[in-house]
Amino acid sequence: MKRLASILLSALLAFSMTGCWGNRNEKPQSSARPSQNPAYSTPAPGSEAPAPSYTPAPSCTPDPSCTPVPEEGITNGTSQNAQAAAAAAAPEPWALRLVNSSHPLPEDFEPATRSIAGYDQRLFDVRAADQLEAMLTAAQKDGSPLYLVSGYRSIRRQTNLFERKVQHYLKKGLDRKDAETAAEQVVARPGCSEHNLGLAADIVSANWYEGHTDLSEDFENTDAFVWLQNHAAEYGFVLRYPKGKDSVTGVSYEPWHYRYVGQTAAAEINQAGLALEEYCLKKGICG
Ligand SMILES: [Zn+2]
Prior knowledge:
Blueprint: H1 2-16, H2 80-89, E1 113-115, E2 123-125, H3 129-141, E3 146-150, H4 155-171, H5 176-183, E4 200-205, H6 206-210, H7 223-231, E5 237-239, H8 246-249, E6 257-260, H9 263-272, H10 276-283
Antiparallel strand pairs: 1-2, 3-4, 4-6, 5-6
Helix pairs in contact: 4-5
The structure holds zinc ion.
Zinc ion binds near residues 195 and 200.
């Protein structure tokens, strides 16, 4: 069985590197800085330039070997508490949906979201928003105030960000293909970012963010990171792109990027030291 599992994992990893590009550091949704009370600040959303027309590359096509996970119970927040409680209690297919370079979301994907308390422009999937807020509140009470840099990002916005980066490289003289390749190193293609799913959050500490112009690995040297390492799973979140898992996730280490998977899955993932790709393979799910 071990040998079979090893072969299956190798096959998955080989495939995962053939789709949309990985190894890019996602940049924050907004360049707005925290205010004097960052935990309750409401940064203005970044202005969006009109996006030139963009057609997703052929490489960003759904993996036909994967069975799509049906979207269940999406409503607009009338029973958020009940949904959050149910999500926290047991693994839910929607919470384990895999999104990466080889598992893009459909172009019209649009989850039901709501604003996170204390932020006007930070949206999150309504089914997990309570858990995110509970985690932020707990960290504040423990003396490790966190700052939510980025939550849900629409595929339309992702398209804008990607195209803007492509235009940057076109102006430097690259042709379209090379410009897209260069852009993919820093901005995920539309539908290939976990932020498009609504279950990913870029989280740092308020103090750290005030002293940085961009998200960077040295966030790991903060008390806030230690707090997240110790407590995120209690709220159903895992560090999505762990150190040393680049070859599995296709994304470099990101100590700020947390993904909601539900409490049970988070505990199992942490205990086994797995990336979400490995966990999904182990569980026989691939949504
Ligand atoms: Zn992120």
